[in-house]
Design a protein that fits this description.
The complex is a heterodimer.
Chain A lengths: L18 H6 L14 E7 L5 E7 L1 H4 L4 E6 L32 E2 L5 E7 L2 H8 L3 E6 L6 H5 L12 E9 L2 H5 L4 E12 L8 E6 L4 E5 L4 H12 L6 E4 L15 H13 L3 E4 L2 H7 L3 E12 L5 E13 L9 H6 L10 E10 L13 H19 L3 H8 L8 E2 L5 E2 L4 H12 L1 H13 L4 E11 L7 H6 L8 E7 L5 E5 L8 H13 L6 E4 L17 H28 L6 E4 L2 E4 L5 E3 H10 L13 E5 L8 E11 L5 E11 L6 H20 L30 E5 L17 H18 L13 H10 L3
Parallel strand pairs in A: 1-12, 10-11, 14-15, 20-21, 27-28
Antiparallel strand pairs in A: 1-5, 2-4, 2-6, 3-5, 7-15, 8-13, 9-10, 9-12, 13-14, 16-17, 18-26, 19-20, 19-25, 22-23, 23-24, 26-27
Helix pairs in contact in A: 10-11, 10-19, 15-16, 16-17, 18-19
Chain B lengths: L6 E3 L4 H10 L5 E4 L5 H6 L7 E4 L9 E3 L3 E5 L4 H6 L1 H6 L1 H7 L5 H6 L2 H7 L6 H7 L3 E6 L2 E6 H4 E3 L2 E2 L6 E8 L5 E8 L9 E10 L2 E10 L6 E2 L1 H6 L10 H7 L16 H20 L1
Parallel strand pairs in B: 1-3, 2-3
Antiparallel strand pairs in B: 4-5, 5-10, 6-7, 6-10, 8-9, 11-12, 12-13, 13-14
């Protein structure tokens, strides 16, 4: 036994264990599954935004080659139930019935109205043409303000207002009364389409008694509960598996019509069924993100010190409420105060029904919207009183020594150091030099103008303390579970309730276990995503996996270690208190005697010589329910060149300094930060779901819905400051959404800064070349 | 999406392909080249051909030949082969410059020179190049071969002068001789996206001024368009760093165009871009 301790695993830039199989695709993606006798489902989708279904005739389709069955919504009306909404945000919220296949009325283009089940996917698709459906058109409802107006066509019988949710602290009227400076702005969060690399797919099968659903989902555990509730199949007879899943960004945090219907159809036919969406089908029917109109007001003193903030939000629910649709704006409700101090805050959100695809979680979920509004408005305040955008932030942010700090947004931020992150970002960015160049270009009236954008963001993540979720009327808790098993040969199996779909949990959890139990990184395997092998979990979303699930892994390891200590003490004939655990071995203090954890594992397996009454196993589970959210923060700086002749915006440099506390794997963090920034830039410059005036989605392909690739993005300069979270034993904060939350306002602030000499103070997102060019044409240069 | 059912044949000679095409007279058959435009149309069920004739394995339809007064590019030469061809780079660099900007590497490895021309998408990059360089298309028809000048080849949106039963064999790209400079200016929102507007420019320099210029525009109408009005004003324009005279000359670049409207640009914006980009393309070509 060597006395040299192995290098700590936590903090090491380990390459990801799972990447070999994920990158080559040599793994179990749902669409790779082939089962004997498998049938394929194809959906006929509504071509109308809003219509009454007056006739459905599936008889011709049933006679097409290879067709085994055809179902309309009416055919399954008695058993298809209603897709669940788990977040009734107010007592009087209107939650309309949401049949997986439309019955009687369609309410958005793409809504499933019928399906064909055939022996191969080509025959299924061909037979769709033979289904006859007559529609009686109803007016499309597309604009939220019009939807709420008197006499608007109701999307549902209850009208177009789903709920109004209010929150406030302090006396906001007093804050605004006689305020020397008041800024009022309206921002539009355009509708976005989540575009995971792997399309949605589901395979359902049954042996006549029990059911198994494989789905490209982020939430196998939640899905199991919800499928049981929706279909009436008892939970213990239903197994849900999320095999390897290729990304989600929130879009697979859902209980979809297709999952419910696949399960019901396999129940009806007794044969395995598969459905895999096409990209165009996905653009239509993956739940969309954002789509809010934000009215934000700031009250400040003459020198720009904030007194209060008011927010009035309209949130487009789309045609139905899906799993957490109404809760998304609430996740932003507490973040409109950002990193700033103020006396009062008032927030009102109204959820509105329209005849469009329902919205729901999309990377950041509520927090990018909030951060955008406050960070854009702070720039307006700076402009109004004539100070640098960084100076206005310094005058208002919470100082390092003031943490923990109870915000006007109703949260207590445990830790933070906005000064340090900003100083580091400025040093990397060369702020003063870029300001000088900007001034020079303005003086020369250069056709290419330079803009500098700032975003000092924070966010709440690590969903979530169960008590908080309860107080917000969410239908479940926010804990996470892990079980750690010592195998006889000393290897370790971790069973996690998180459900990775690209995040690298197998690697990060291995690093946590390696340090906690002193075993080699390579000796740890991580099991996830299958309710048969990992029965307890709350899955992966909201930057929760490490800060909740990772802590559960750590706590389970501690329990295993304590069990092993009992056995080691027995074997070494000493008191457990005499043992210290270092380098993977229990050592008797002051002597050379030791037992490695692997030796203890084998001895426990043999069970020949264990303490009296000791159960022959070391395994342990732990369920962690966080006391608080984690609050990553940081400063992002963006320099953009705007070609005033074409309207094109080109990011010249981008600096991100994030504070996510301690880091388990810097490489994984870097990947999250890069991807997050890219996705935020995408909202600022590229992506928008566009419906025409009849409610047809125009952006059904990637030629119309533009997603930037590496070729379109600049190099990112990234760095970190480390202010450990005090709310968990690893001192970690979530990082999955931070980049997306931070980057959108940094980019748009930079564009507006570049165009400021033209009298332009806003450009609607995405800031396309055409929009920027038109703004310049209409400007007052 | 999943295409509807179709027949598939893969001849190995041009004669065989022509025979199959003639026999299919009346049926809706399509030639399959690199498939980068046709397959998406099939998958979206915007096209329902009864049969595809895959001409991807016909060796005589591939390659670049250096002829005395022109470069011959066979129809099934892939974009990637065109870009990497030393003959193309040296003798007709505009073709290489524009082809290097077609879509992305994956598409360029499958998509073909002739397929792109025969598909005749006005947003495609190569039709404008064909127009600017006065290429001549060589076509196999029922009674031998015939030649179609580029100016007559692009008839309407996705429509060419090719008759049913005809196969595009390749194109002759005239050698312009010394003194010419070239540039293809493509304006698009993401690297893989179609051009909102593109400008192919060939400029002959003579003693510090432009003596002749040819300009063709991508995506400014249902077919690629020559900007003749601007071309006529180019001779005599000095090649300097300033924008004055050149800007004046190309201000008519969008004259006679009828640009489309879509999510990426309305017609007035495209007309404006055509002028700005023409100026840039000509400057780049002239230096």
């Amino acid at each position: 036994m060597t006395d040299t301790l192995p290098e700590a695993e936590i903090g090491r830039a380990r390459r990801r264990k799972e990447d070999g199989r994920l990158i080559t695709g040599r793994t179990l993606w749902t669409d790779n599954i082939q089962l004997p006798g498998m049938l394929y489902i194809a959906f006929l989708r509504s071509p109308m935004a809003h219509a009454r279904i007056t006739r459905v005739d599936t008889s011709a389709a049933k006679t097409q080659p290879g067709v085994v069955a055809v179902f309309s919504g009416q055919d399954l009306a008695d058993e298809q139930g209603s897709l669940p909404c788990a977040w009734p945000v107010t007592e009087d919220i209107v939650i309309p019935d949401h049949p997986p296949m439309a019955v009687g009325t369609v309410r958005y283009v793409g809504e499933a109205v019928a399906c064909v089940v055939a022996t191969d996917r080509y025959k299924a698709a061909d037979a769709l043409d033979a289904i006859e459906i007559d529609y009686e058109p109803l007016p499309a409802v597309l604009d939220m303000n019009e939807a709420l107006a008197e006499g608007a066509t109701p999307v549902h019988e209850g009208g177009n207002r789903s709920f109004t949710w209010q929150f406030g602290t302090g006396d906001v009227d007093a804050a605004f009364r006689d305020a020397p400076v008041v800024i009022e702005r309206t921002y539009v969060q355009q509708r976005l389409i989540p575009s995971a690399m792997e399309p949605r797919a589901v395979v359902a099968q049954t042996d006549g008694d029990t059911y198994t659903v494989h789905s490209a989902t982020q939430i196998p555990h939640v899905l199991r509960v919800m499928l049981a509730a929706t279909t009436g199949i008892p939970e213990h007879k239903l197994r849900v598996v999320a095999p390897d899943v290729g990304g989600g960004f929130g879009s697979k945090l859902q209980v979809t019509a297709e999952e419910v219907l696949a399960l019901l159809i396999t129940k009806r036919l007794g044969r395995p069924v598969k459905w895999t969406e096409s990209r165009s089908e996905g653009n239509l029917t993956v739940h969309h993100g954002r789509d809010q109109i934000q009215r934000i007001s700031l009250a400040a003193s003459a020198d720009g010190v904030l007194r209060g903030v008011k927010v009035d939000l309209l949130a487009d629910m789309g045609a139905y409420l899906m799993l957490v649709t109404p809760g998304i704006p609430l996740l932003g409700a507490f973040m409109y105060t950002g990193v700033y101090k103020m006396d009062a805050y008032d927030f009102t959100c109204t959820g509105v029904f329209t005849t469009k695809m329902p919205t729901d979680a999309y990377r950041g979920a509520g927090r990018p919207e909030a951060t955008y509004a406050i960070e854009r408005a702070m720039d307006e305040l700076a402009h109004e009183i004539g100070v640098d955008p960084l100076e206005i932030r310094r005058r208002n942010w919470i100082k390092h020594e003031e943490f923990p700090y109870a915000t006007a947004g109703g949260l207590t931020y445990d830790s933070g150091n906005y000064e340090a992150a900003t100083d580091r970002a400025l040093a990397l960015f060369g702020y003063d030099k870029l300001r000088a160049e900007q001034s020079d270009r303005r003086d020369r009236n250069d056709s290419v103008q330079l803009g500098i954008g700032v975003s000092t963001y924070t966010e709440m993540c690590g969903l979530a303390p169960s008590r908080v979720l309860g107080s917000l009327r969410y239908g479940a808790g926010g804990w996470e579970h892990a079980t750690v098993r010592m195998l006889p040969t000393g290897k370790v199996e971790v069973v996690t309730g998180t459900s990775p779909h690209g995040q690298g949990h197998e690697t990060a959890w291995s690093q946590i276990v390696a340090d906690a139990l002193g075993v080699p990184f390579e000796d740890v395997a991580v099991l996830h995503g299958d309710t048969a092998s990992a029965p307890r979990g709350m899955d992966t979303y909201g930057s929760r996996s490490l800060v909740v699930g990772g802590i559960a892994v750590l706590q389970a390891c501690e329990k295993v270690k304590e069990n092993a200590r009992q056995v080691a003490a027995h074997l070494l004939e000493c008191s457990p208190d005499d043992l210290e655990f270092t380098g993977g071995a229990f050592r008797v203090r002051g002597t050379g005697a030791a037992k490695t954890i692997q030796e203890v594992a084998l001895a426990t397996f043999a069970a020949h010589n264990l303490p009296d009454g000791f159960e022959p196993q070391l395994d342990a589970g732990s369920t962690f329910d966080p006391e608080a959210f984690s609050f990553p923060h940081g400063t992002h700086l963006c320099a953009i060149e705007v070609d005033t002749e074409t309207g094109e915006s080109k990011i010249r440099s981008y600096v991100a300094v994030d504070d996510i506390g301690n880091v388990v794997n810097p490489l994984i963090v870097e990947g999250q930060v890069h991807g997050g920034i890219a996705q935020g830039i995408a909202q600022a410059l590229y992506e928008e779901a566009v419906y025409d005036t009849d409610g047809n989605l125009l952006t059904t392909t990637m030629a119309d819905y533009l997603i930037p690739s590496a070729a379109d993005l600049p190099d990112f300069t990234t760095d970190r400051t480390v202010t450990p979270a005090t709310s968990n034993p690893l001192g970690v904060k979530g990082v999955g959404e931070a980049g997306t939350i931070a980057s959108t306002p940094a980019v748009v602030n930079a564009i507006v800064d570049a165009l400021s000499p033209y009298g332009i103070r806003d450009v609607a997102m995405p800031c396309t070349p055409e929009r920027v060019w038109r703004a310049i044409q209409g400007g007052t240069s | 999406m999943i295409p509807a059912t179709f027949e598939y044949v893969r001849p190995t000679t041009v004669e065989e392909a022509a025979q199959i095409l003639r026999n299919a007279a009346g049926d809706d058959v399509k030639l399959l080249a690199g498939g980068q435009s046709l397959l998406p149309l099939l998958r979206l069920r915007l096209a329902y051909p009864a049969a595809l004739i895959d001409i991807g394995r016909i060796d005589e339809l591939r390659g670049v030949r250096d002829e005395p007064d022109h470069v011959y590019i066979a129809a099934m030469t892939t974009h990637d082969e065109v870009v990497k061809s030393a003959v193309v780079q040296e003798q007709c660099p505009l073709v290489a410059l524009a082809t290097a900007q077609v879509a992305d590497p994956a598409v360029r490895h499958r998509g073909t020179f002739g397929g792109s021309m025969a598909h005749a998408d006005p947003a495609g990059d190569l039709p404008a190049v064909a127009l600017a360089l006065d290429m001549t298309f060589v076509v196999l028809s029922a009674d031998g071969t015939r030649e179609i000048p580029a100016a007559e080849f692009f008839v309407d949106y996705l429509e060419t002068a090719l008759e049913p039963g005809e196969i595009l064999l390749g194109a002759k790209v005239p050698k312009l001789g010394p003194g010419w400079g070239f540039h293809y200016e493509k304006f698009h929102r993401t690297a893989q996206a179609w051009a909102i507007v593109g400008v192919a420019a060939a400029v002959k320099r003579d003693n510090g001024t432009i003596s002749e210029g040819r300009i063709a525009l991508t995506n400014m109408g249902t077919v690629p368009v020559r900007a003749f009005a601007a071309e006529r004003r180019l001779p005599g324009v000095p090649i300097t760093n300033g924008y004055g005279e050149l800007r004046e000359a190309v201000s008519v670049a969008a004259e006679g165009t009828d640009p489309p409207t879509d999510l990426h640009g309305r017609p007035d914006y495209r007309r404006h871009l055509a002028v700005v980009l023409t100026e840039r393309a000509v400057r780049q070509a002239a230096v």
